[in-house]
Amino acid sequence: MKNLNKNMYHSENYKIYSFNCNENGEASYQAIVQYMIETSIEQTNIVMKNNHDFDDYFWVIYQWDIDFIKRPKMGDEIIIETVSAGAKKFYAYRNFTVFDEDGNVFVQAKSKWLLLNKNRKMPARVPDELISLYGKDESLEIINGEFEFSKDLKFTREIDFRIRKSDIDTNKHVNNAKYIDWILETINSYKKIKKIQLTYKKETRYGEEIKSKSTDLLEENGDKVIYNIIEDNEGNVKTLSKIYLGE
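Above: the chain sequence. Below: its structure as tokens.
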């Protein structure tokens, strides 16, 4: 993998352990997403180590567009590389590649992050100075706009969840990777997922009760897809997602 400057690209090595896997010894989708988030956190820790000008700001994930080519298996050693793809207004973009030491690609992902002010908990425009710290590869494809999500969908499967302490991360709300589990619980068969498009709309906290609701399998432009919505008992939307299934 190329490396254009010391901040733009960052990689971390991981091993897939049994507790990261499903019953078939494949890395869970949640584990893969968590590893990608950890890699981005490590890059931010390095970039911001000696810079305190932006201590009043923090990043939250807003959107994922993840392509699963092949899932790593128990015992595999993987490399996750992330690269800054620039920023526009309140959002920053970063892409990920998950591969092994021979260069075999498991996952490719695009993500969109929102910059928030810690004190006001409001979106903040990404400063040029912050963009320059991370660098940017503007040749990369990024997530543009919102994913399509029809208002006329019929949700036929629903599962209720109550947020446990073990679901909460250091930001005092539900870990972003946890939503993947709740989405997949409503899908009867997901032996192979080709793609997940996911938008986070509202944070979820300890003690809340939520519903994960999915449609039946639909055919769209030759793809097999399932839509999912996670919302609380008042109908406040937490996430919107579209899952593409393989054979």
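The chain has three helices and twelve strands.
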